[in-house]
């Protein structure tokens, strides 16, 4: 009993003599990347290289398009051309049409972007035998 009383009195005295808090909150700081910023040309080249892989499979194609559509941009026609060629290599016309639908959705209220993309991709679409969603009547559904 005496031991417990001494222990409580010693810990109580210790708490009175502390001048600084026991737990200090960490300082708020932000860690920004100090790495090199990727230019638009490097970004385009990276995605074109990704879709031009000869051994790309359907999962990688969908993963790449999902990541690309997740960015705050409408992909350049040359990136979309590489993605459409990958769809053709995989014989996956449904994914090609989904890509075009995603671009139309991504363009949003900017009505001049999607026609421009289709205009730029028209030779590739004709070469690959891919119809646009409008030609298939999917825009009216």
Helix and strand arrangement:
Elements: H1 2-17, H2 40-51, H3 58-70, H4 77-89, H5 93-107, H6 113-128
Helix pairs in contact: 2-4, 4-5, 4-6, 5-6
What is this entry, summarized?
The chain is an all-alpha fold.
Distance between the termini: 84 Å
The total beta strand count reads 0
- Percent of residues in β-strands: under 5%
Question: Poorly predicted ranges (pLDDT <50, ≥5 residues)?
Answer: none
Percent in helix: 55-70%
How would a crystallographer describe the biggest sheet? Answer: none
Shape: globular
Rg calculated over all Cα atoms: 29 Å
Task: State the oligomer.
Answer: single chain
Count of helix runs:
6
String of helices and strands: HHHHHH
Structural class: mainly alpha
Rounded mean pLDDT score: 85
Write structural notes for this entry:
The model has no long low-confidence stretch (mean pLDDT 85). Helix 4 runs parallel beside helix 6 (113-128). The protein is 60% helix and 0% strand. The protein is mainly alpha-helical.
Can you tag this structure with a few keywords?
globular, mainly alpha
